[in-house]
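Why run this: before we spend reagent on co-expression, it is cheaper to look at a predicted model of the complex and decide which construct boundaries make sense. The entries below are exactly what would go into the expression plan.
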Amino acid sequence: MQEKQTVLTISHLNKRFGTQEVLSDISFDIAAGDVTCIIGASGSGKSTLLRCINFLEEPSGGQILFHGKDAESGWRRAEYQSKVGMVFQSFNLFSNMTVLENCVCGQMKVLKRDRKTATAKSIFYLDKVGMAPYQNARPAQLSGGQKQRVAIARALAMDPEVLLFDEPTSALDPEMVGEVLSVMRDLATGGLTMLIVTHEMSFARDVCNRVIFMDQGLIAEDGAPSEIFTKPKQARTREFLSRVLDR
Amino acid sequence: MQLPSTFFGWVGFLLEKYGNLFLLGTGMTLLISLTGTVIGFLIGLLVATLRTIPTTRRTPLPYKVLKNILNVLLNIYIEVFRGTPMIVQAMVIYYGAMQAGLIGRGTPVPVVAIFIVSINTGAYMAEIIRGGIISVDKGQKEAAQAIGMTHWQSMLNVVLPQAVRNIMPSIGNEFVVNIKDSSVLNVIAVSELFFMSKSAAGAYLRYFEVFAITAVIYLILTFTVTRILRLIERKMDGKATYTILGSQTDSQSAITIHPENREG
Ligand SMILES: Nc1ncnc2c1ncn2[C@@H]1O[C@H](COP(=O)(O)OP(=O)(O)OP(=O)(O)O)[C@@H](O)[C@H]1O
Ligand SMILES: [Mg+2]
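The model came back. Tokens follow.
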């Protein structure tokens, strides 16, 4: 297999809230096309890590490199954030806009696309997630699964190089989890670089090519799903997996 | 000439004789309060957005210092204008500007009046809008930021439209307050409704009858404005229905959904 290009480098990332250290010395690389899942107990810092990577939270220390350039000084913040997109647990669709406007707005304001191009692109991705028929609906009129699919289309319409997902199915009713996971599965097959925080262990096992296990703000274990799920090296990984897998 | 002897007689007489004054005064009151509210609203939006500019760990120090100074100045502005009566602000600004030579005999008083109401309303609006911004789910701003919108873009396109919707009742209330409180501007002799009423009352010394009429006019103004604002609020909620496009090309296959009929 040929060497894949590194897109993101997280280097000695630290995050403190007051005196509480939530992330300690996190380092890892993400290569183009990688689908990486982050698993770990509640409070281990998974969300904080994603939020720091997208700069929704200011890191307290360390560095993030995007294509080898410092993400804070080498890139305009807006440019970086449009290339490293984020999908939230609570969808966060703009509730003052229709589904279509949700996807169009960022493209026009951030990427300066004209309305026609932005609309075409939006409809392309809405179609891909099966939400094109609902383009005139408002977020409040959609189910959770539909909202999340729109949120994914909105992120994709920005042509991101990396997409971060923070527990995209945790706020969904069980019968809607499948529709969102299947969209994400398609994206993985399509070669999109993704970093996914999830509690869906079967998804992590089947779709990701790498699993990072976090424990108390540290990366405890990092490897292929086959290794982590079948022969974890660390006792705490084993303990966590036995807890979540027999649910 | 025979002068009236009853209350309604006087009211009819005064309306006939001074109807013009009442009309002009009402027009001026509306002009000052509407313009003042709109400009005050814009000031409020600007102040609230300036106060929420974020800084990062890479923000240069001079910029951070400047931002803090700006915040202090904005806080002083809000405290001063909320903490003193508008009638006093009117005197200080009008005569202060006069002494400083910023305005002269030729300056139209309504312009000064609108300036005073605007800057006074701006201070209240800034706080109202701050409340509105807090009322908008934090996730909205984060989602805008996460796709690369700047602070101004996310405020303008996402946060403020929702904040404003949430605080529409308070904004309307400011307008109603301004209709009533612009009456204090009679101290700088601007020809609004109260000032005009005083002139009308003075001629025959019929203060009770004239100000009964004035009260009714104020009441009609505030009542009408309140109703109109209620209508606008309802408009801002957006359409309750939406259309599912069954096919991109065939509009016949579209289905309109009324949420109240929707299952679940
Ligand atoms: N804004 C904040 N201020 C203070 N502490 C915070 C803040 N955000 C997160 N924390 C703390 O940081 C720690 C990690 O939180 P984080 O949300 O990253 O965990 P998580 O792994 O995503 O958990 P979950 O699986 O429940 O989502 C927690 O102890 C949390 O209380
Ligand atoms: Mg989390």
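The CA atoms of residues 172 and 226 of chain B lie 7 Å apart. Chain B has a mean pLDDT of 89. Bring this page to Monday's planning discussion.
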